[in-house]
């Protein structure tokens, strides 16, 4: 068994302390940092006492974030929780980046109306390789503990799994909204899906977590961890849920499948332009959830905008901060220059080059073959809307056919291709 394997006798600290500790100014400041931008902090008074005990004893808190490697790439929506981890890390606490290589094989049923196909071990291992490297663009890798939940889940075996399952009732599981909805609708619920929140909760027992972070969709799972810790004689963790970040459309949550995302490994110029494309209203939410600037600084920006300053200038500062975090300060400066050049009708330096044959080629086919549009119908619609330029000139003829030659094609504000047509 792993040395972290819990027993019912183990306890990270006394579950109840006889007297509440006073909250120093430092603890109050730490609490304010923890609460910035959160959806919920449960239970705040308990977490305040954990902070006070930590200050008194000099023992850092153990703060856990678990991510299942279900896809190889992270986007800014994922970093909302990672940013909070970094803030707590900067306060001197121990952060644990937990890769759910075991739980990924079950599949998280959160928010789903159908059974999620479990990933294979090969898929999980492939995705996990890139996860921490990308997360390290936000977290301080030198001060981050990396764990895999297969460390303690695999040794459980079937006997241990049955014993763990005996600690939670079906009635408690059915309190979960998505399970209740599926049951009422007659949609199948596989037995293994009940194991997911149990195993995630058991992670908190194994790691003796003081605080666990997650998105709002993870609240049920985090609460299971809290209850299991009590059952194992540990002080229950507090839980902190972060909002789900809206994507570029300002409506749906950020998602690659909805194509409204900003990937953290995207080119600097693309990342900068995407940040600049969000609305002026949505900009403040991005500041609150993604920026490392203080709330005082952000409040100052709002006053400047109310006083007549162009919100575009404030958005530029946000775009540069985000690009610098994932690339470099020089890349942020270059991205700004590229954005300004494009806004003046200039052509960026990093235009992809494409060679095509078949001249004369219709504009619809050309835009499709260069991957500037997904289909000829979309291409013709963009032409009709005045969203297509060739060598800087707007094209309005949907029947246009291009002869052999070289052209710079632009679709919308951000898509370019240098085409050689033969």
UniProtKB/TrEMBL annotation:
PROSITE patterns: AA_TRNA_LIGASE_I, S4. It catalyses: tRNA(Tyr) + L-tyrosine + ATP = L-tyrosyl-tRNA(Tyr) + AMP + diphosphate + H(+). It is found in: Cytoplasm. Its EC number is 6.1.1.1. Keywords: Aminoacyl-tRNA synthetase, ATP-binding, Cytoplasm, Ligase, Nucleotide-binding, Protein biosynthesis, RNA-binding. A motif ('HIGH' region) lies at residues 69-78. Residues 1-22 are annotated as: Disordered. ATP binds at residue 256. A motif ('KMSKS' region) lies at residues 253-257. Residues 361-422 form the RNA-binding S4 domain. One of its GO terms (molecular function) is tyrosine-tRNA ligase activity. Residues 8-18 have a biased composition (Low complexity). InterPro entries: aa-tRNA-synth_I_CS, aa-tRNA-synth_Ic, Rossmann-like_a/b/a_fold, S4_RNA-bd, S4_RNA-bd_sf, Tyr-tRNA-ligase, Tyr-tRNA-ligase_bac-type, Tyr-tRNA-ligase_bac_2. Catalyzes the attachment of tyrosine to tRNA(Tyr) in a two-step reaction: tyrosine is first activated by ATP to form Tyr-AMP and then transferred to the acceptor end of tRNA(Tyr). HAMAP family: Tyr_tRNA_synth_type2. Homodimer. Belongs to the class-I aminoacyl-tRNA synthetase family. TyrS type 2 subfamily. This is Tyrosine--tRNA ligase.
